[in-house]
Amino acid sequence: MTLPIVSTPIPPPGDEIELLARASALAGYNLGELAAHAGLVLPADLKRDKGWIGVLLERYLGASAGSKPEQDFAAIGVELKTIPVDSRGRPLETTFVCVAPLTGNSGVTWETSHVRYKLARVLWIPVEGAREIPLTRRRIGTPLLWSPSPEEELLLQNDWEELMDLIVLGRVEHITARHGEVLQLRPKAANSRALTKATGEFGQPIMTLPRGFYLKKTFTGPMLARHFLV
DNA sequence: AACTGATCATCT
DNA sequence: AGATGATCAGTT
Which one of A71, A84, A93, A219 counts the least CB within 10 Å of its CB? Predict the structure, then answer.
């Protein structure tokens, strides 16, 4: 297996087969090898570069880079997610999905939600994430091209509806990360001083911490496990 | 081990 | 301010 040339931006994949082939070709390489081959300087750790691995893999796979509110592979409708895993392939972190809308939610439904859109088709790439492993030696795992099963989608929908109901009812500040079986709502902000508009208990406008939807490890764990078992 | 709030970089 | 890419680190 040989690494693709990445010194020049590589074109988006034409279809899922091509995308999966590119991702599969990266499996087994470590971050030091991929960084060197791409001519990038690997950070000492991820403390100040939390999205570094995601950006690196975007580059190798031909994702439309940057911060556009679109899927990573818009043309083929696929989202890319790297997920840090332990030695047994279990997730080490929750997975950010998208920012939660805290205002203007009258009439929003699961069918039209950003969560459903983002998760409709995801290329999961596990990456060794144990902190004992130096960043340079952490290896890329086998990719998984995934869509939620009917059961998984129902779990997601139920949680999304529960959380959105609370938001609409002005109870966003009462929501904890325990609400939801598989989806949780937590801060997603530059820092604790960042505020956004929301609706309060009495329907009044309030300023609160921006929130995001995250997939719990109890969701992504079994999802990955099933894949690597089969 | 899960939860929880906080945080970092970059771009539009 | 809010989107992209997420992980850190203390507490329970």
Answer: A93
Alpha-helical segments (H) within A42-145: 52-61, 114-119
Residues A209/A196, Cβ–Cβ less than 8 Å = yes
Lowest-confidence segment of A98-102, A103-107, A131-135, A138-142 by average pLDDT: A103-107
CA-angle at A226, arms to A224 and A229, nearest 5°: 110
CB A59 within 8 A of CB A53: no
Q: Which nucleotides of B are covered by protein (CB under 7 A)?
A: 2-12
Q: Tell me the domains of chain A and their CATH numbers.
A: 16-229 (3.40.600.10)
Q: Which nucleotide has the shortest C1'-to-CA distance from A65?
A: C4
Distance from residue A25's CA to nucleotide B11's C1', rounded to whole Å: 29
The string of pLDDT tens digits covering residues A16-59 is 999 999 999 999 999 999 999 999 999 998 998 999 999 999 99
> Is residue A73 helix, strand or coil?
strand
The gap between A202 CA and C12 C1' (Å) is: 32
